[in-house]
Amino acid sequence: MNVITKFAEGFMNLFQTGADTFISWVTGIVPVVLMLLVLMNTLIMMLGEERVNKIAHASSKNIFTRYLILPFVATFMLGNPMSFTLGRFLPEYYKPSFYAVVGQACHTSNGLFPHINPGELFIYLGVAQGITALGLNQMDLAIRYLLVGLVMNFIGGVVTDYTTKFVCKQQGITLSKEAKLVG
């Protein structure tokens, strides 16, 4: 009987932990994401969707702006998960690659800019603690992490472009490489 009771208590604790996590999201990350969404949509309305589309259109034409500059700016300015929303302005063909790059950039920029992905900061800090214990400079690690991340994220975007091309050909579909400009 003791085993059944312990199992039932553990089972209910699992759900209590899930509920506690959910409540922390409702009072923590959800309002932040909501406010960032409001800010981004306000900026888009103030600048005009046509201008934002033109910027995205211009950045989508160049592989370096598409997979180096735009994802870095998106993650730096908006953080995770809001940075993904800038992909809505890109042509359909480049969206999978943009999302792949941004998803990786949210981690590789975290050492220098912890506001980008605070939920995952513990991973970087764990590595940084080991570096510090070795007597090495933590800032050197952060800069290297960012620079290697930029290169690897760029490569990830290019590889995802090839994957997208392969899947489109395999499925017999065509995705637009042109941004749809308003007006």
UniProtKB/TrEMBL annotation:
Q: Report the record's Gene Ontology biological process terms.
A: phosphoenolpyruvate-dependent sugar phosphotransferase system
Residues spanning the membrane: 22-47, 68-90, 142-160
Would you name any one GO CC term? membrane
Superkingdom: Bacteria
- Keywords assigned by UniProt, alphabetized: Membrane, Transmembrane, Transmembrane helix
Specify whether Transmembrane helix is a keyword of the entry: yes
**How is this protein named in the record?**
PTS glucitol/sorbitol transporter subunit IIC
